[in-house]
Structure formats: C-alpha cells, structure tokens
Specification:
heterodimer; A: 275 residues; FAD/NAD(P)-binding domain; eight-stranded mixed sheet; five-stranded antiparallel sheet; 13 strands; B: 610 residues; alpha+beta; Leucine-rich Repeat Variant; 2 domains; 22 helices; binds flavin-adenine dinucleotide
Amino acid sequence: MRHYRQVIFGGSCWAIGSLLAAGEGEVLLVERSASLGGEYFDSYRRSEGWDAPLDSAIAANFRKEMGLRNMLRGDATDFYGLLPAIYNRLGANTDNIMMMSELAGVTKITGGYELELYNHSGRNVICCDEIIDSTPTAVTRPDFGKDSIKGKRLNGSVLVSEGVDFFSHKISGLDLRPGRSGQEAFISAAVAPESGWVEARKQLADAWLARPAELRDCLVRAIAKEFEYAHKCEHYEIDENWTWINASIYSNPLLAIDAGVGAVKSGRGAEHVSC
Amino acid sequence: MYLAELRDRKSVKNKAEVAFDAEYDVVVAGLGTAGALAALSAAENGASVLGVEKLNLCGGSATAGGVFGYYYGVAGGRFEKVDERSAEIQKGNFINGWTFNPETKAIALDEQLSGAGVELCYCATVIGVYLDDNNAPRGVRLVTPEGLRNVGCKVILDASGEGEVCAMAGAGYVEGRGLDGQSQPFSSVRVFADGDKMNMANFDAGYAISSDGADMSRAVINSASLHLVPEGETMTELLWIATIPGIREGRLIECEKTLTFKNYLDGERPENPVAYCFSNFDSHSQDWAFEEDLAQDWMMAASLWGTNVSFPVPLECMIVKGFSNIMAVGRCLSVDHMMACALRMQRGMQKLGQAAGTVAAIAASRGVDIREVKREEYIAQLEAAGCLTIPEEERAVLENAEDLKDALASAAPGEAIWHGSRNIDKYGNDLIAWLADDNANLSRNSALALGTAGRKEALPVLLEIVKSRDAFIPANLRRNQPRILGAVYLLGKLGEADSISVLLDYIKSASGVQEVSHAMMSLLRLGRKNETRREEIAQVLSAVVNASAEYNLLLKSSSKSGEEVSEPMADLMRLIIARELKAWGCEYDISDLRAKRLSWRERRMLEEVA
Ligand SMILES: Cc1cc2nc3c(=O)[nH]c(=O)nc-3n(C[C@H](O)[C@H](O)[C@H](O)COP(=O)(O)OP(=O)(O)OC[C@H]3O[C@@H](n4cnc5c(N)ncnc54)[C@H](O)[C@@H]3O)c2cc1C
C-alpha cells in the first residue's frame, strides 16, 4: 500500500499552493473532478485585492505571469486567465496529483488513515499520516460538509449590451456584480444550501428570463460550473490529523495559493477560526 | 451475488451481500450525450430510472465538454425536442452556441429528464456492479455527495463514454490500435465568448489512455496548460475550460455484434438498425503509418479521409456479450478502432441512447433479457421519432471504365482509386493498360488502385513515384495525403525485394515523421519477407531513428503559448523496430529507454519487447 505523509482532498487553490510548496514525494492531491481551482474559477466567485501583499514566491510568480499576459487590469482583472497558468506550473508535477478520483471511504489505522480511492484505473487503497480536506462539501466527511454550509450561490456571466447601464437596474432574485470588462457582468442567485443543481440552474434561469425589459438585449454567456459556497466556519478538526479547511475565504485565488504555501512553510497547517 | 469492480484496470469479482437502499428498473451510468437520451427514453417508456452522473449536469461532452455543434449525422430522434426546448430558453436570453447552447441544453435536459421521472443523481460515480451467478445485474455501487450507496436494478445502461461499468463487470473490450494500443488524440476544449456568440477552441492535445487513472491525470493537467497564451498577448476571457476531458476513443466494448471498418468497406450493412450514424472516418491520429492496412488503404492510398459514409447500427452493437441486461451505450459501443473514428458523433449517439433506453424499459417491465425484446415492440416508436432516417451518402458514381479513367486522371482521384481497387476483376486490365499512359495522373493513380488491390503490376510505377519524389497532393475532400506516401506504403504491402533499395534511399533523404514512419514501416514489412536484406534494413533504420533531430522526428500534437507542441516519436519508432527485429532474431539495443520517462504506449511496448 502506497504511503503518503499527507493527502489533500480538493484541487483548491489553497491545496495547489500547499502541493507546490511541499515538493515531490510526500504529499498527494486528490480531486474528484477534471478541473482545479473550481472554488474560484468555475464558481465565478468575486475576486478582489489582486495587488495585496503576497508572502510566497510561488504566488508572486503567478501574479507576474498574469501581468505578462495583461490579465491584471485593476477592477477588471481576468481572474480565469490564471487557471491555465496554474496548470502550466503543475505540468511537471502530475505524479502527485490524482484527478478524477473519488473517495469511497476513510478508515482510521494506527498512526494514520487508510483511504479507498477510485479513478479510471479502478480501486486503489493508500494510507497517510494526515488528511487535509479542502473541498467545499467536505468529501471526507459529507455529513459535516452538509452542516457546515451557510449559503450557496449560483453565478452566471452576462454579456452587457452596448449603451445599457446594467448596474442601474435590479433583477428580482439576482445580485449583480461587476465583470472582467465593461462588456461583462456577473449575476448571482442565492440558492438554498440544500438546493441541488437542477433547482439552482432553474432558479437562476427563471430569474434571468424575468429580467426588466430594459435589459432584454443583455444575454447570459455562461452559467458557473461550481457553486460559490459560504461556510459557517473556516476550519474544523474532524479527527486527529484530519482537518477540514475552508479554502475559499481568501479575496482572490493568489491569496489562497499564498496561504497554502504558508501552511507548509509554517508547518502548522491552516490557521483559521475553528468551528 | 458478486461485486465487480476495477483494480489496476482489471475486473475483479468478489462475493458480496448487501442490502440495496433503493430499487430501479434501469440504472443509467453517465448522463452524457447518449446516456441522457437513454434515461429519458427509458422513463418515457414507463421504467423507474436512476441516472447517475459524475458531473453536475446532463449532456457530457456536448455541454460540460464544450462540444456544442453537430458534426454531420442527420436530424430526427427524441433529442430534437430537447434541442427545441433548449433553443426556446436560449432565444433572446443566452448567447448563441453553434448548433445549440450548452447551458440551455443542460437546463432543457434537467427539465425533461426530471419531468419524465428520472431520478437524477449528479456528482456521483458508479464504482462497482453487483452481478448474479448468470452475469445479470443486481445493482450498482456509487459514490455520491452523501457517501456510498448501493442500489438495485434490472438493467444497466453503461453510457460512461469509457465503457467503464462494462469493464468493471468483466466484459471484453478493445482499446486503441493494434500496433501500440494507442487511441486517437484527445482534446482540451476552452469555451469563450466571441461577441454575442459562444465559441470554443477544440484542438488536439496529445494522447491519453482513458482507462488509466494516472495517465488521465497527467493528460488533463498538461492539456489544460495549452490554453495559456504567450507572454505579451492578452488572453481571450474564458468562460470555462471543459470540465470533462475531450476523449474521442476509449474502451470499445465487445457486444453481440461488432461493426468494423472492414464490414463497411466490404459493403456489408447490418440488418435491423435502430439508428443511422453519418460522418467521415474522422481519425484525428496523424501517425497513420502505424494504423492498420485498411485504414491506410482508405486514407493514404485513396486519400478518402473526408468522405462521408452512412452506417446502420443494430441494437446488438450495444448488447454486451456474456452478460444479461447490460448495454454499452454511446461511443463505447461495439466497433473496431477504425469504426470508432466515424461512429461517435452526437446525433448518432443520441439516437442510439434513445434506442437503448426504449428497449431497456421494455425488458425491465417484462422481466426479460434485452435479447428477448422483439423488434416489433419498439421499432415503430424509433421510426416515428426519426431515428431511422437514412443519411444520403454523396459518393461519386463511377459506372464504367470511361468514368473511372476520367476520375483517375483528375485532380481528385480518391474515389476512383478506391473503386478501381475494389472492382479489380472488372477493371484490372484497364488499370494495367493505363499504367503506360502519358498522362502521369492516370498512370500513377492507376498504380495506387492496383497496388491497393495487391496487384504486383503496379510495382514499376509505384517505384517511379518514389524515385521521382512525386509531389502530387490530390484534391479530394479534406486532409489529403501526398501520393508519394501512398506509394511508399503500398511498396511495403506488396513485399517485393526490388522496393528495398528504393525505400532505403528514400528514407535516408526523408524528413519528418510522415515520410520516415511510412518508409520505416514498409522497410520492416519488406524485411519480414526478405531475410537476406534484414541486416541492411536494420542498420539504416537504427541510424535514422538515432539521428532523430536530423530527421525531425517530432509529430506536431498541439500548440502552447503560440509555439508548436510536438510529440517526440523517435523512442516509439525505436520500440517498433526493436519488436520487429526481435521477431527476426536480431539484436537491437534499447536498454537506455528503461531510464527514460516514457509515454504510456512506449512503456507498454518496452515491457512487451523486454
Ligand atoms: C473534442 C471533441 C470534439 C468533438 N466534436 C464533435 C462535433 O463537433 N460534433 C459531433 O457531433 N461530435 C463531436 N465529437 C464527438 C461527440 O461529442 C462524442 O463522441 C459524444 O458526445 C460521446 O457521447 P457519449 O454519450 O458516449 O459520452 P459523453 O457525452 O462524454 O458522456 C459520458 C458521461 O458519462 C459520465 N461518466 C463517466 N464515467 C462515469 C461513471 N463511472 N459514473 C457516472 N457517470 C460517469 C461522464 O461524466 C459523462 O457525462 C467530439 C468529441 C470530442 C472529444
């Protein structure tokens, strides 16, 4: 059975920072989907403070990459553009990442945990000393995950038609947020924490279809592929050396990466408010 | 009862006793292009259906995968109503997609599947199958957002794209081509807004083995990095990077009937279709020298890549061999590697999904195996829905020798080369006579037709094509191949010793993967038949592949930050040579490869050769 010092669940930006700081060998990142950083990028979560101080060279380099590709434009930062740069940086490091991998069970064993994982090759049992769960739904403890969710939003990107003062209008059931350029705005529907994807998409679409006539030429460009979650707490000790962390409390993905790096450097894991 | 699951890519069965927490008539694993229609049709035919989907939406490659356009196929089928509803939501509210908007298609599928009573289980993955002693399904094991679940069912429709559930159960399958097990290249798709339209960039991103977890991890990360633009450029604002990898070909499950490329080319058309598919043999592979002969006859000698062909697909291509009530639905259906190039497009997949769901519901309600459902019980419904509309092939009609001659002399001789080679008894003498014609196209294209038919009379002209470094590229429909490569391939196929010196000469001055790989494969074939020349062939080939930079043995597989991304092919070529030389009893040192980071297919071949 393959042993890792630490297994991080969830390909969050925080986890990516942690993995990059840890280097090869001892840390494994397990993500159930085929995408990374979904809590920021694919949720269209509002990101700000892109010029905030960063402690780590890893995060600072990502900011440099963004600058070199004209993504940092004050209020209209192209947050999504950072994602290919992250994949690019990870390119050489894929042995320590298991994408598209489901967790079927966690068993406590002497000195750590045994994890039953499934991916395209099938069942694979590994063990580790420490588990960090950085998924918004706490895949390692779904019952806790469910309880920890305070709120949930489904967002969408909108093409604002020329001459329309989008933000001077109100759309019932939707919050309006600035987009990456004058042409884009985000719409955001607060959905019940227990809402599934069918209800959430319907709620967003219904609200949009009922928008004021003045906005009829504005069109939805895309619906977020992940929910934007708000949690009741930032950190939870599930068991000994088994921690859930809220990976989306940072104002932008760079700060999340920076915090992930910092957690490794300090050797203290995530420093947050406990539940 | 047994629990069957995959371990290290192989099916493992263990005795199991579980209490199911729910029972359904039909479980559909994967609610993608085919699976969504399968679940919908099963429910509309009265079945209780659990739809299990890894992603958080229906539509798979068509929605989350960003492939929002139909590539050929013909209209008709239940999916049209989904698309109509999608268009209704989209119009004036969402930007346009290509054929459809993937966001509104997902909403329409949510609506129609829920409306029909399908229980949607999103963000959930089937990880095991419960089977009885007769290989009939008893249920499935799932990871869901709430944790593990075991649910019972009478029929399983595996619409996972990868045939993953069939593989868990222990069904037979083929994967990739014969030479190196390689499937077609996959894509990473990015979706962006282009004014008031949705657009996507769909480019090949190298190779991935979709049945291997580690290789898939590597592939999705590396391919997503290809979306990075060069420094100094401004990125187009992305809407999303596909949340499902763009796999074109994975496991192809062994079913009661397998449709092969050879069947098609031999004019066999299965009886009792449940749907028609329509496309060209849209192979994304570029290293065609490593494909099977028939593929090379079609794509290299005749250069017919772009020709659309229509296939009737019977239900038996989805009924998994050796199992009761398990069907392989979608692109994992029973076809061979070549046929998989044509039989994967969305319209056809949706129609086949509809057919599978309809039959599954009938089997479940009658408590019988799918094989016992009679065609009369469902065919009228599929016919009325439009699944059986026959697509019209627009192949050139060559009625007599005059037509053939004109076409062979033309700039677009592909159909004539093919027709001539396939009707060699009728046209053999004409083709031989035309070899001596002053019209170079007529003479040389006649040689391709004769060579494809295995006729040695073609040899002098084929040799001349190579010696003269013929530069002709036909103007057939799309992706035309230089005539010289067709000739190089056919010289190997004909196996005559006279070709060896010409090809040795050719390969020494060759450049790039295409020229070198075709000549290499032909020389290896010639060595097989001409024992006395083996040493010479081995020496030249090893010198060429060892000088990979000089011969530019890089296959362009994609681009990144404005620069070409290429697959180095020299190691693979060395392995192919090593395997052949081993069969000849010759030494060929590849020990240095053990210390290298090899691709999946190279590792596999190294194990085989070692
Ligand atoms: C890049 C690319 C471009 C293409 N371009 C075109 C085009 O322009 N036009 C066209 O007509 N066709 C095109 N095709 C072909 C076509 O889109 C696909 O072949 C077709 O959509 C496949 O349908 P499917 O139902 O078999 O698989 P998919 O649509 O991929 O659905 C499979 C579903 O199963 C789910 N799944 C997998 N495993 C499990 C599991 N264990 N448990 C639960 N769920 C699971 C997946 O999440 C997915 O949703 C393209 C394909 C690709 C990859």
